[in-house]
Each structure stands twice: as structure tokens, then as C-alpha cells.
Write a structure and sequence with these properties.
Layout: E1 9-14, H1 22-38, E2 42-45, H2 52-61, E3 63-66, E4 77-80, H3 88-95, E5 99-102, H4 106-120, E6 124-128, H5 134-140, E7 148-151, H6 154-159, E8 168-172, H7 178-191, H8 205-217, E9 223-227, H9 233-244, E10 250-253, E11 269-274, H10 280-291, E12 295-300
Parallel strand pairs: 1-11, 1-12, 2-3, 2-4, 4-5, 6-7, 6-8, 9-10, 9-11
Length: 327
């Protein structure tokens, strides 16, 4: 009888916390609850969160994802994604007689309110963020054109020439690199000493915690994997953080099937995390893929406990709301 060769040994370090944040969890629950309460189809503008697995599962339940509102029939329900939308979108939904349900993360909504407050006080708003990201588009769309200037890099912060340097405020995208954002903020503070700052940090608790968790173990790893979507800002930042924290090779993968096995040659320890829109089932899938190839020693890094929860919209919790008639 031929003995099976012993599988090579590998240590897998799990970053914690990882995966879903409260805003993502709320947004997914909103779609699920809307489908239960009103029945399919329920329309969703853009991806509810940036994860193909999540979107495909919700689509199988009856969610219909659309690019713009003109694809939604009058009288139907439309859900706005967790990233937020420009102010013009809800207004358009009302004109089209759609029933709007807002799944915007409350922490993103907080940034929107800060932008409005600064604008009302006569300040020009600087938004630190990435051009083209839905959250940035939604935040800039809260104010009139020209009221917000996007700042993406240190170089842009250094080159900025505002019309009224003493009447500025800054806000940030919630999913940025904590360290890179701090460097940009330092430049803005140095150049514009009177700039108004957020009352509370705009980068969300989940982004900060997940970056810290990766940073804590990255230097011990020869390879670091982040499970997430290629259009997920917070997932891409985790890859960057792992590299900056001392891991020689960090990559983004969507599923266990995407793990670059050739990159494990000579690697004794692999780090594993997941972006805030990636479900834990995908982490479990990746662990199973490792177990199939290695004698695995799974090490759970010390965790930061998260107990943040956000309420669902009243239209989905009010018992007086009947199926087919969102309140």
C-alpha cells in the first residue's frame, strides 16, 4: 500500500477584526428585509456593497441591480447603496415616483452632514479621497458644483491654491489608509492653520481596526492575502498596509480559488484578512483551500472587539408597513 506523502506545513495567521462592518451588514440586511417584506423584485442602484459574492447571492433572492434610475419602473422600490448617493439621486427617485430606501452607511451620512454644515458656514470644503469612488461621488454631490475640491495625494495638498485660504474645512472618505490620510492632513494643517477639522475622525472605526489588525501581523508573514473585491477601497488599502508594515508580498484575492499558490514557495507564514464588504464564508473557503494543500497551523491574532450596530430604516421595521406598500 502506497503511503500518501506528508503535506507541507504552513502557519496561517488570521487578522482580527476582519470582514463585515456594521454599515455593510446593515446594507445587506436592508436588501434582505425589503425582499421579505415587499417581495421581489427590489431594485438596487449600483452594487449594494463592493463584493461580487454578496451581490450575486442577493440577485438570486430577487434583487435587481441597476446602473441608473431610468431602468426602474414607476412605483417600484429602489435601494441606494451603502456608499451614499449625490443629493440629485433621491430627488430623481421622487420625480419618477419610486419608493426610495436609503442604505447609506450612517458614518458616510455623517460626512455628508459635515460637508453641508461647513458649506452653510461659508467654508470651502476639501475632500480627501479617491476620484471616481462611489462614496466620493456621493459626498461631492451633496453640495453645489465647485463647493468641494478633491485632494488625493500629498502633492495635490502641497499645490492647492484656494481662493480663501482662511475659510477652509476638510472631510475624508471613510475607507482611506489611516497613515496616508494623516500625512495629507498634516500638510493641510501646516499650509492652512485655520482649516476646520471634523469633530470626530471621518475614517470609520472598521477601516481603522482592520488596518491596525493587518499592521500587527504583517511583518511576520512571507505572504499576505486580503479577501475582497478589486473595486473595494478598504480592501485595497489593507493590501497597501500589509506591504508598508513589512510583508514582502501582499495581494488581493476575491475567492479561495484565486489564491496564488506559486507565490507560497518558501513561505512559512501566510497572513489572511478580509475587507469590510467580504463575508466570513469567503475566509472559511480560503482556509479550506489551504487545508487541502498543507498541514495547517491556524493562529488567531488578538482581536479588537467591535459592537457597533446601526438601525434599519423605519420602512422595514414598522409593522404597519404591508407587503407591496413601503411606508
Amino acid at each position: 500500500m502506497t503511503e500518501r506523502p506528508e503535506k507541507p506545513r504552513l502557519r496561517l495567521m488570521l487578522a482580527s477584526p476582519r470582514g463585515f462592518c456594521a454599515g455593510v451588514d446593515r446594507a445587506i440586511q436592508i436588501v434582505e428585509r425589503a425582499l421579505e417584506r415587499f417581495g421581489p423584485p427590489v431594485y438596487v442602484r449600483h452594487e449594494i456593497v463592493h463584493n461580487r459574492f454578496v451581490v450575486e447571492r442577493l440577485a438570486a433572492l430577487g434583487a435587481v441591480f441597476v446602473d441608473e434610475l431610468d431602468a426602474v419602473p414607476a412605483g417600484a422600490s429602489i435601494i441606494f447603496s451603502a456608499h451614499g448617493v449625490p443629493r440629485a439621486v433621491p430627488a430623481d427617485a421622487q420625480r419618477r415616483r419610486l419608493i426610495a430606501i436609503d442604505a447609506t452607511c450612517p458614518l458616510v451620512s455623517k460626512v455628508h452632514r459635515d460637508a453641508e454644515r461647513h458649506h452653510a458656514a461659508g467654508r470651502h470644503v476639501l475632500l480627501i479621497g479617491h476620484a471616481g469612488h462611489p462614496e466620493v461621488i456621493g459626498t461631492m454631490g451633496q453640495l453645489p458644483v465647485g463647493a468641494v475640491t478633491l485632494v488625493q495625494t500629498l502633492a495635490e495638498a502641497e499645490a492647492l491654491v484656494p481662493a480663501e485660504p482662511d475659510r477652509l474645512a476638510y472631510i475624508t472618505q471613510t475607507t482611506l489608509s489611516v497613515d496616508e490620510t494623516a500625512a495629507i492632513v498634516a500638510v493641510l494643517r501646516r499650509r492652512f492653520p485655520h482649516i476646520r477639522e471634523p469633530h470626530k475622525e471621518d475614517i470609520c472605526y472598521a477601516t481603522t481596526n482592520r488596518q491596525q489588525a493587518v499592521k500587527a501581523i504583517a511583518a511576520q508573514c512571507g505572504l499576505f492575502l486580503v479577501i475582497g473585491a478589486p473595486n473595494s477601497s478598504n480592501s485595497l488599502r489593507l493590501v497597501e498596509v500589509a506591504r508598508a508594515a513589512g510583508c514582502p508580498h501582499a495581494v488581493l484575492v476575491e475567492r479561495g480559488r484565486d489564491i496564488p499558490w506559486a507565490a507560497l514557495a518558501g513561505v512559512a507564514t501566510v497572513g489572511l484578512s478580509a475587507g469590510a464588504s467580504a463575508p466570513e464564508v469567503l475566509v472559511e473557503e480560503a482556509i479550506a483551500a489551504f487545508r487541502a494543500r498543507f498541514t495547517l497551523n491556524v493562529v488567531a491574532a488578538p482581536a479588537v472587539e467591535e459592537d457597533m450596530h446601526f438601525k434599519l430604516p423605519r420602512a422595514l421595521t414598522d409593522e404597519r408597513t404591508r407587503a407591496g406598500a413601503p411606508g
